[in-house]
């Protein structure tokens, strides 16, 4: 077994290797999250049905996961099915997505094992159909000892409902331990999130050009770098993940502080009189 740090660069395609060669391995993100959007439009552009877009999208999931595992990315978290998708899409589409997920897990388990990928989930997964939950538990159990990339599928997930669930858990803990509300810290909230065991995403990728967060990982993306591409999810491949990482590495992360090019504060800032406007 190898750890998530073990690289399998020789397994990248030659095009991927060319992009990887431009990266600084010591500055790889630890956690990449993706909003996979555009399956329906991809199908529409080809006069296909929406479900065919989702089918192609599932192929992208596997290919991108394998590239992530080859470059030793520890955490990859994909928005596969939102609470809002569950409530607002036609039943036939929701049912298709549920069947697709089961088939996807079953038919890709061997490839997950070959790539040392561990499968996990976040979201209100207990509300999914029992047969889907069974398949999910089966895939998580089978891959639990893998030590490479952790692929987390966000399913029946919403960022606000995650916060509601976290705050309910925290409130119950506080009641039990008689803790007063003014003792609550950010760390307490973090401990009750679905993602308590993982670092916050360094990079959030969204496909198909929309500039929205769509209720994804709202707490966790506070300081995440965002990369939006016009490419539709069924056309997204490992090489595009590497290109997004290259773009990420050109950014300066400041976490609210000052960067190298921020200019001088000036000693007089403390004394200068501010005119009322
Ligand atoms: C957005 O496309 C995508 C989804 C609602 C679901 C994502 C699902 C997949 C990528 C396939 C299945 C995933 C797994 C893990 C097997 P959209 O339908 O909103 O596209 P549109 O905005 O163009 O209509």
Question: What does this molecule look like?
Answer:
The chain is of the alpha/beta class and 277 residues long. The protein has 9 helices and 6 strands; from the N terminus they run αβααβααβαβααββα. It has helices spanning 14-20, 39-45, 50-70, 83-88, 91-114, 130-142, 159-177, 186-191, 238-249, and strands at residues 31-35, 75-82, 118-122, 150-157, 203-206, 225-228. The chain has a 6-stranded parallel β-sheet with strand order 3-4-2-1-5-6, sandwiched between helices. Helix 3 packs parallel to helix 5 (91-114). The N and C termini lie far apart (65 Å). The mean pLDDT is 95. The protein binds farnesyl diphosphate (FPP). Farnesyl diphosphate (FPP) is lined by residues 36-41, 54, 57-58, 61, 80-81, 85, 100-101, 104, 153, 233.
Question: What are the SSEs and their pairings?
Answer:
Layout: H1 14-20, E1 31-35, H2 39-45, H3 50-70, E2 75-82, H4 83-88, H5 91-114, E3 118-122, H6 130-142, E4 150-157, H7 159-177, H8 186-191, E5 203-206, E6 225-228, H9 238-249
Q: Key terms for this structure?
A:
277 residues, 6-stranded parallel sheet, globular, alpha/beta, binds farnesyl diphosphate, 42% helix
Write a compact overview of the structure shown.
By secondary structure, this protein is an alpha/beta fold. It is built from 9 helices and 6 strands. 42% of the residues lie in helices and 12% in strands.
